[in-house]
Amino acid sequence: MRDFVELIVGAMASGCVYALVALSYLLITRPTGVINFAVGEWSMVAAFGGFLALSRYELPYPVGMAIVIAAMLVVGWLTERFAVRPLVERGAPALAPILALLGMLVVFREIVSVGMGPDPQPVPPMFGYGRLELGLVAGSYQSFTIIVVTALVFGSAWYFFERTLAGRSFEAVAIDRRAAALMGINLRRVTALAFAASAAVAALAGLLVSPNVSAHYMMGLPLAIQGFTALVIGGVGRVEGALLGGLILAFAEQFTVRYAPIPPGLAQGVPLVLLILFLLLRPTGLLRARESRA
Amino acid sequence: MNTRTFAHRLDQAQRADTAEVPAAELLIVKGLCKQFGGLQAVAELDLDVRVGEILGVIGPNGAGKSTTFNMIAGALAPSAGTLTFDGELLAGLPAHAMAARGIMRTFQHNKPFTSMSVRENVMVGMHRRIKGPLWRVWVASASTVRAERAAAQRADELVEFVGLAAWRDADVATLSFGQGRLLEIARALAAEPRLILFDEPAAGLTPSECERLSIIIRQIASQGIAVLLIEHDMRFLMALADRVAVLNFGRKIAQGTPAQIRADDAVVKAYLGDLGAMADA
Amino acid sequence: MKALAGFALTALVLSALAFMLGSYQTDVYRKLLLWVTLALSYNFLFGIAGQVAFSHFTFYGIGAYAMVILLFQVGLPLPLAILAGIGLCVLLALVVAIPATRLEGFYLALATLAFAQLFIVVLNEGGTVTGAAGGLANYRLPEVFGMRVTGPWYTVVIVLLLLGTLASLWRLDRSWFGRACRAVRDDPQAAQAMGINVTATRIAAYTITSAMAGVAGMVYAFVDNTVNPPIFGLENSFLLLFMVIVGGSGRHAGAIVGAVLLYLLPFVLSPLIGHHHALVFGLFMVAVVLFQPKGVIGIWDGWMAKRRTAP
């Protein structure tokens, strides 16, 4: 029984990481309609940042984490300022920012590969490698950390979008860019903030997942695909959708690996098949976006 | 493929006898209805458009003109009712199938193909005429080249007909709104349609552009093409249409010649808030 | 007639070159020709038909694997294997096209990305059929009537493939179909109103170009005489996209320029940056999107226009 609970805890932790990546997409997609392919690479860069700050320079965890996240906020802002804003303001076709970000994906990856080499690097977990066992519930410290941190992030995100004025302005920009601008909402600031926040969330995902999988320069794209699958499953319009999608994806993955009579390699196909199915059959995801309500 | 030039046919039509011959009904709309949830946008609408005539459809805002237009154009499926075109029942066909049968439409907010020149845009309009089986593109290339050249020539004639000859090779982004409207018309004519649906063609045009538009639509109808015209601009429509149907709240409240409509009580009541417009008409 | 002469001359020149190259240069040359072929067909799909798909290189892989499997596991004679391979490529392309073309823009990109990854997973788990992670190797092009096409003659085959692909795409582009593809790309609603069956057009464009990629893959199978999963991964799909965009999306010349540039650049740059040529590609990509969306061909056009108006 405990075994089963541990599987669930592990799946939840995985799902939370996917959910964070999905949230990272959402923060940019909602106000700007731009799909940021480079999200996975942001996580990857943050993971290496974690390696440097925490493993190599052995800074205390909170300090290291703060530095990495602050650095990624800047990276996000810079990406928007130089790779996206010129295109949006020029009125370039919608595909252009996406392509530019795709180029950035490769650039980020290669820079890290040049700087840090092709080998995976260790990143320490927040509370060490211990395990927690409370009655039936069991799992690694890291798993619980991930779950708690994700809950906090999503809680804040939900609060931000639902209850604060700034968050409502994000929503307004998402629903109608032109109208929002006419209402006096500063589009530039919203977009810059969106990118910065997205990078920070992606950074968090990178820091949280890398203790388990090590920081590696190729880790970005699979993470990006899983994150986007989570987003599509849960529903592109809502913060809660990202969380739901991430959990569903992780559970589908883990349970297939553990219980399905197919070779484990094939289990890698699960998120891919799910993504294709959802795109074809239910592209809006499980949860409806807010503006679809009459 | 029709080898006679467009200009030639136009010329012939203008010289033709204007003897009274009852024109055939090309499009017959019977009992057309459209429901959106609880809202009845169009109810029990009967219309008919005859060959070579200009039927105008007017009505106050929200009368159901656009909805009707979109149902006839195949962009919207009717909730009930029938559409008969040249004797054939059009049962909720998709837009491209309507076009394949010779029903062409213009868009109120011009929708040119932005990556192509004016001439190429018009050539797209010819799709139903020059499309062939795909494999022929590779095999019978000599005849394909000939067809392309002929199509380009016809496109040039049409471009000239609407008055855009100087912009033939221009990028459509350089056209003014009024010129874009003319391109819409040339493109619709390229398919050699039997029925053209105009969606508020005078919207956004200057008075002189409206004049030119009026002349062009008259010439189109004299060619034997049936014209259905949805319009807001009373003055424009009343001067142009042969017959007028008036819609209000999704129903037809009057139909007749412009003179009859002007005198119709029901129509006056519907436009009571718009006495200025009525006075102009 | 002029076009035919031009093609014949080009075929002659490119083939003659094949006979003048050493073994290492031949390998580079062959792969260059194949990349140009792929870039041309991808350019039609992405640049002209406007479909953002990442499945092109996957069909290349499907063609390659299909050829090897049909010849050496099913045991078909070469002519039959070729026909069956082409048929398989067309069929698979059609099967993927039908659901795929219901998706627009980014959703299509995502679905084809997933499809590409799925192909790799299937290859890795394919056991003895696909050779799993190691792939299939140690095979040779079979003899036909006691003759085997090797060396420079095989390069001639690739030249013919390239020119055949170019000629087909050129014809398509200049016909009502090419116009219909552009119309569907620019404004699907208006295209419908013109009588264009948008769905059928999209399916045709996807099927034809993907099948072309598959046929190119069939030819590729005997270039390295080995096929394995890493060759057909996403990296190369991205590279293909970069080639088309950097060269000039929507233009055949752009595809050729982009493929030549991005394929040969690593050889030129390798003393400087070793394996990390992807960095340069990424930077080129970002630079083109930001500063010259029409690509290298756009720069060329601008330069030519200036020369014309200069005194």
3D structure, described in words:
By secondary structure, chain A is mostly helical. In chain A, 75% of the residues lie in helices and 3% in strands. In chain A, a hairpin with a 2-residue loop joins strand 1 and strand 2 (137-140). Chain B has 281 residues and is an alpha/beta fold. Chain B contains 13 helices and ten strands. Chain B has helices at residues 6-15, 65-73, 95-100, 118-125, 127-130, 136-139, 141-161, 177-190, 207-222, 234-240, 258-263, 265-270, 275-280, and strands at residues 25-36, 39-50, 54-58, 80-85, 88-89, 103-105, 195-199, 226-230, 243-248, 251-256. In chain B, a hairpin with a 2-residue loop joins strand 9 and strand 10. The longest helix of chain B is centred in the middle third of the chain and has 21 residues, at 141-161. Chain B starts with 5 loop residues before the first helix and ends with a helix. Chain C is mostly helical. Chain C folds into two domains: 2-232, no CATH class; 233-311. Chain C has helices at 2-20, 23-48, 56-72, 78-100, 105-124, 127-130, 151-173, 176-186, 188-193, 198-220, 234-247, 252-273, 277-291, 295-309, and strands spanning 136-137, 226-227. Chains in contact: A-C, B-C. The interface between A and C is large, with 39 and 36 residues.
Strand content of chain A: under 5%
The main pleated sheet of chain C reads as: 2 strands, antiparallel
The helix-strand sequence of chain C is HHHHHHEHHHHEHHHH
Number of helices of chain C: 14
* Distance between the ends of chain C: 35 Å
List unreliable stretches of 5+ residues of chain A: none
In short:
The complex is a heterotrimer of chains A (294), B (281) and C (311). With 294 residues, chain A is mostly helical. Helices cover 75% and strands 3% of the residues of chain A.
Q: What are the salient characteristics of this protein?
A:
heterotrimer, A: 294 residues, mainly alpha, two-stranded antiparallel sheet, 12 helices, 2 strands, globular, C: 311 residues, 2 domains, 14 helices
Topology:
The complex is a heterotrimer of chains A (294), B (281) and C (311).
Chain A (H helix, E strand, L loop, with lengths): L1 H31 L6 H18 L4 H30 L4 H22 L14 E4 L2 E4 H23 L1 H11 L1 H6 L4 H27 L6 H15 L4 H21 L4 H4 L1 H13 L13
Antiparallel strand pairs in A: 1-2
Helix pairs in contact in A: 1-5, 1-6, 1-8, 1-9, 1-10, 2-3, 2-4, 2-8, 2-9, 3-4, 3-8, 5-6, 5-8, 9-10, 9-12
Chain B lengths: L5 H10 L9 E12 L2 E12 L3 E5 L6 H9 L6 E6 L2 E2 L5 H6 L2 E3 L12 H8 L1 H4 L5 H4 L1 H21 L15 H14 L4 E5 L7 H16 L3 E5 L3 H7 L2 E6 L2 E6 L1 H6 L1 H6 L4 H6 L1
Parallel strand pairs in B: 3-8, 3-9, 6-7, 7-8
Antiparallel strand pairs in B: 1-2, 1-4, 4-5, 9-10
Helix pairs in contact in B: 4-7, 4-8, 7-8
Chain C lengths: L1 H19 L2 H26 L7 H17 L5 H23 L4 H20 L2 H4 L5 E2 L13 H23 L2 H11 L1 H6 L4 H23 L5 E2 L6 H14 L4 H22 L3 H15 L3 H15 L2
Antiparallel strand pairs in C: 1-2
Helix pairs in contact in C: 1-7, 2-7, 2-10, 2-11, 2-12, 3-4, 3-10, 4-10, 8-10, 11-12, 11-13, 11-14
